[in-house]
Amino acid sequence: MKYMKTLAGLALGLALSASTAMAGEIVLNSDQTDPAPKKAMEELIAGFEKANPDVKVKWNNIDHEGYKAAIRNFLTADAPDVAAWYAGNRMAPFVKAGLFEDVSDVWKDNGLDEQLKSAAASMTIDGKKWGVPYTYYQWGIYYNKDVYKKAGVSEPKNWAEFVANCEKFKAAGIDCLTTGTKALWPGAGIFDYIDMRTNGYEFHMDLTAGKVKWTDPKVKAAFAEWAKITPYISANAAAIDWQDAAALLSQGKAANYVMGNFAVDTFKKGGMTNDNLGFMLFPEITAGIPRAEEAPTDTFHIPSGAKNKADAKKFLAYLASADAQTAMNKTLGQLPVNNKATVGDDPFIQAGFKELSSAYALAQFFDRDAPADMAKAGMEGFQEFMAKPENIDAILARLQKVADKVYK
Amino acid sequence: MAQQAVHNSFWKTNQKALAPWLFLAPGMIMFLVYVIFPIIESIYISFFNWDGLAPAHISQLTSKEYVGLGNYRDLLDDDSFYTSLWNNLKWLVLYMLAVPIGLFVALFLNQKVPGIRLYKSLFFFPFVISQVVVGLLFSWFYAPGFGPLYAIIKSITGSETAILASDTMATYGIILAGLWPQTAYCMILYLTGLNNINPEQVEAARMDGARGLTLLWNIILPQLRPATFIAIVVTVIGSLRSFDLVSIMTGGGPYGSTRVLSYFMFEQALSEYGTAMGYGAAIAFVLFAIMMIFISFFIYRMLQQERNS
Known about the structure:
heterodimer, A: alpha/beta, D-Maltodextrin-Binding Protein, domain 2, 2 domains, B: mainly alpha, MetI-like fold
């Protein structure tokens, strides 16, 4: 499936290279093919064209998985004027290769340093801003309240209680924690949280930036915490997709799921409602460590090969505005980055807003914070660890070997 | 006028020598541009540490990115490489089962009963559908929770075995999926071979009292030799090219245990998390070298046969 999509994306990328913009037109490449994001984009573009009647937007919407492969081709071959991508280290290769345009002036002219403050750090490389964030969403633990009742368990206050609960869930024949790591990334959410709760945000950032070794005793300590719950994680997690694991939670076969807020839709389609779907913050492991959270941010950038940079900057400025972000995130069901924007009234979005606005710091997610090659090796290591915790020393040694190569 | 005469006479004297080249030219140019040149280019890339982004084009690679045989040295120190190599070997050996099974099915179907055409096309069906579909079908077949095979194993042994989640079994699970269409391919090769069997020889052998396995081994199989040769060639190449099924069924997982060289190359150079073009090119060259061993051998055999006949 993924392969097909990648191929389709490559083909699309090639087909797109024929598209060139006229004056007063900007070409926009993005990957919002799911219904809600697609609708949000359509509204955004309509709003922008209304506010700037002299500019037309030509939108190429590319399949999500295929886009990741296509972007490399179209940035170098025939760049659009605006391209969707992600914040943090995920944009670093394109910035370092000179493929993204410095948009610090858009930030300065529109007062974005103040309004988009929470995401400013993740958009900055070498002291310059390289794009504009428009949405993010929280991660945390989604749980099935009915299952909690059935097993006679209450919401845990800290990690020790969470682990103790797992024992009770096991006795009741329920998977304490579920995940589906066929696509690797869901496992990284668990690691990010356990490491940030055990060792703190700064240590976690140093680890993903290659400043700390994977063989460091503190990393091992984080994995030791993880090992406490590996016996209670759904067996065969490696063979299933994240949606299949979401079904386990909806069906009451599993109690907890470390996931992003986009999964709420899937849970509800599986029959859950606001009444029995619960959300909680990942519990505290080392007492007193400031609470950092995961909040992957989606962004738009101007490729340095863009032909109509003036109008593209107008688009970014519009995208950054409070009104545009309020409207867009209402449709997306996510959180606006602009702190002047209004947050939707869905209980999970409200919970996320509370979680993120009170957080000490925000991480982007393992595969955006760590360089791509490292992320891949790391996520494979997490997958192996959950299946075979006894291999921990070999896994960490292997990760360090990859790190030696990636960060040199 | 005079010039044209010279031209004419040049063409006339060399017509016989030139004509074949003219006819060959379109094909040769295509082959050069789309096969030979990319091979040389990718070998060239394998000597560089390049992410495919900066510099933007191969021609701009400089001594700054040059690492010589560094990528190949890294490869020898990479556990994933050995996993892939070992899996390729498993594929190569187990994929060969398609040849005898294909022969068996072909012999079984080579009879004249009503409706045999339907049975033949049913057996041939897996080869017609895309590998992607085969991969999806089998991953559902194995899937924990709702897969039939999963349910069967559970009802017999009581244990919950998800084949594609197990690092020891996943590769075999994928090879089994691959054998399904490959067997159909070998079967069709043998069926056409069986059509060309000389009935007089079979008749004569029967009169001499040859039956069953003796007849098969001494009379039928020697006549099927061309079919066997082609079946082995396509199976060897098919096993080394295995990519679609790995990509669809496991994506190289769990934790990289089902990687094969072609998928490893894709992961390193072209996938979502892979930017190591040089490293990927080095893997591609190793795979190319392995294939060359087999291909050279097959070509050698083919030339030999042509000379003998």
